[in-house]
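Two folds, back to back.
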Amino acid sequence: MKKDYHDYNTLLLHASNDRDPLTGALSTPIYQVSTFHRDSENPSKYDYSRSANPTRDVLEDHIAHMENGIQGFAFSSGMAAISTVLLLFSPGDHLVVSKDIYGGAYRLFTQVFSQWQLEVDFVDITDTNEIKAAIKDNTKGIYFEILSNPFLKVADLKTIVDICQQNSLLSIIDNTFLPPNYCRPLEFGADIVLHSATKFLNGHSDVIAGVVAVKDVSLAKKIGFLQNALGAILGPQDSWLLIRGMKTLGIRLERQTDSASKIAPWLKSQTWVKKVYYPGLEDHPGKEILSDISTGYGPVITFHVIDDKTKGLLLGKLSLPAIAVSLGGVESILSHPATMSHAGMPNDVREAQGITDRIFRFSVGLEHPQDLINDFENTISNV
């Protein structure tokens, strides 16, 4: 049942069973169990935790309400979520895919599902004409990120969903960079939205998880079947951690995005920075489109430094941000896409997209923005 609240933060706290019906506990119990006793007189939906687990059920209900869908699904990783969704397609089917995507997803399409004979054409997702031109008789869907990784290009969600509907294609959106308190693609007509819940949804760098939400009953049945058949489900302990993390998503994102809006223009003014990519900047080419579908620009900033000396200082001397894979935690994380998130891409493909050794992706955490700025300044002056 849809729950309407004045503020999305209220929904984040109360979207699912926030009070255990058996005990009244305000924290969902962790049903750390693999199998369940069968009572012939009082049959239950639970028999084996791969098929259903009470803790995961609360999480999946929470996901559905967050995305304004009819059903949510929790997987053991973001890649498990993507892989399961791709198994909706058959050998010989064709997908149009954004070329500016997470490197692990690129690897999955080109090195794993190519063996499945799933055909893929990579396009500039910001070019509507290129998207349309890539559609063929056997095209079955379009897969993209609204905010691309790592350059934060903005996909025109409304137009792409319209193209999908006109051509009877599934629209599949990885919305990891733009959590549902900012944008809910299902409300714009998208068919499937997914997240690496490891990132912003959890927010504490202590869970690997993926989630999917849909709004169509038949599609939900298909994904539910695949989730059970493949078994890449999220365990009860991690489900509990993800429920806990999602309750603070709104307040975390508000603070992190506010900090990013201060740090991005500061980075742009620095002589050691060649270019800054952030959709909240006035000169970002996708700002107007994003403002039409999202209530926020997110806490991720990508920037290009001028030389290898600066690159070395950032990788070796910063004290506050972790130099690490991933993003979306309460702590700031500075990533080097060429050797981290996009290492799964061949060198020529990566460089053709501009992902060079001097590109950094900065996920702004909950530290005070001035402390982060001071850390950058002290690092660069540390010659």
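---
second:
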Amino acid sequence: MIQSFRDLQVYQESYELAIIVNKAVFKLPQYEKLDLVSQLRRASKSIPANIAEGYAKRVSIKEFMKHLTIAIGSANEIEVHISLARDLGFWSKDFADDLINRYQIIGRKLNKLIQNWKTF
């Protein structure tokens, strides 16, 4: 039974990924600190934060959907930043591709939540 945003599997998974990304950015060069590092950190944190905020506003379907849509946008955005980290040689292909795959799953789960929000 869902009693809190913390009970949502998509929240749990996106939070876990945010931790992984925020630890991994320290492997990026110092000159990327204000650019790629910042973008990766913000996008990764945006997903679970918007799920939590949307859940709190779920009495308004419009507000709930707005926050879930923002979370999907952040999931798409972080795929680009991860791809850049990979293609610039900062992260290994395997590590980056695993993250991208996991964020794609997050995006699909968020889409399902949008479509089936009344049943959760």
